[in-house]
Amino acid sequence: MTLTASDESQIDSQTARSQTEKTIDYSFLWGTRILALAVAAVLLWIAIQVAIDSIPAIREFGLQFLIQGAWNPVENIYGVLPMIYGTLLSSLIALLLAVPIGLASAIILSENFLPLSIRTVLTFLVELLAAIPSIVYGLWGIYVLIPFLQPIGNWLHDNFGYIPLFSSRYIGPGMLPAGVILAIMVLPIITVISRDSLASLPSELRWGSYGVGSTRWQTIFSILIPAAFSGIVGGVMLALGRALGETMAVTLVIGNSNDLNFSVLAPANTIASLLANQFAEASGLQRASLFYAGLVLFVITLVVNMLAEVIVRRVKKF
After folding, report:
1. Which residues pair with 72 in a beta bridge?
2. Domain that residue 163 falls in
3. Over 50: is that where the pLDDT of 126 sits?
4. Which of 180, 181, 273, 289 has the fewest CB atoms within 10 Å of its CB?
């Protein structure tokens, strides 16, 4: 079969176009690799710089810094245990409040419980919560949330004061309002990611479950949530990372007390709040200790994200 000149030119153009596409794909692949390595390099650079600046405190206190309960700049005695406790407990309170509400909201917004127009508006409002600056949350917490929680805190102390968690009388800023404000701030993350995970499931899962006689709620809890569990866990861990590092809103409502108190009704502190309050005026060993505290927070956040990745991968295997 003899090819005409037009056929040969068409084949040449297709070959040239194919080579161009391959070149673009190859360039894009290496471009993404370089950018990924750049992100890792920046992360490593930050960690190394923080570690270098914290060396004087590491030499002075060692691992005792993690279990020392006093933070006294006057006598150059520094320990970050109360702040570690405050960081972890406030984040735990936030998750205990936000996960059930966020998952329930995701179910309502992903299933046909409400008309599409109403679900669209509610989804927009939930996403809008994530756009509110943290300082606004903090001011709202001072003037609205804390007065609202005061009677609840007093009631908990009067009736359950024998329990260490409620042993302190609630009079204002403290761990409880910090946990509640964090719950409100991480709620959009959990809701949006969980909703997307549920909405992206194949419709065959729903109809197959209905076909064998399952009710709507049986389908949701027995089929849909387990199928979307990896995405839900990823959203929860991402919210936990946000809660661990939140600064301004928590600083305004937690009370900024460096004393170790196990009551959620007492003023407390977090590592991020400690850095925000003292770093501007710190020098010498205090500055190095603040860098050491920042390094501790960096490690905690890194461990949380690594655990999230491990959990998500293990869940996907099942």
Report:
1. 77
2. 68-317
3. yes
4. 180
Is 60 within the bounds of a domain? Answer: no
Q: How many CA atoms lie within 13 A of 55 on its CB side?
A: 4
Q: How confident is the model at residue 209 (pLDDT cuts 50, 70, 90)?
A: confident
Give the pLDDT confidence score for residue 93 in this predicted structure.
Answer: 92
Q: What is the CATH number of the domain that holds 245?
A: 1.10.3720.10
| Least confident among 226-235, 284-293, 308-317 | 308-317
* 253 contacts 146 by C-beta, under 8 angstroms: yes
pLDDT at 97: 92
Phi then psi for residue 246, to 5 deg, are: -65, 140
Instruction: Please indicate, yes or no, whether residues 229 and 278 belong to a single structural domain of this protein.
Output: yes
Both 184 and 128 in a single domain? yes
Q: Is the pTM of this model over 0.90?
A: no
3 plus 92 within the same structural domain: no
Q: Phi then psi for 169, rounded to 5 degrees? A: -75, 130
Shared domain for 297 and 250, answered yes or no, is yes
* Domain total in the chain: 2
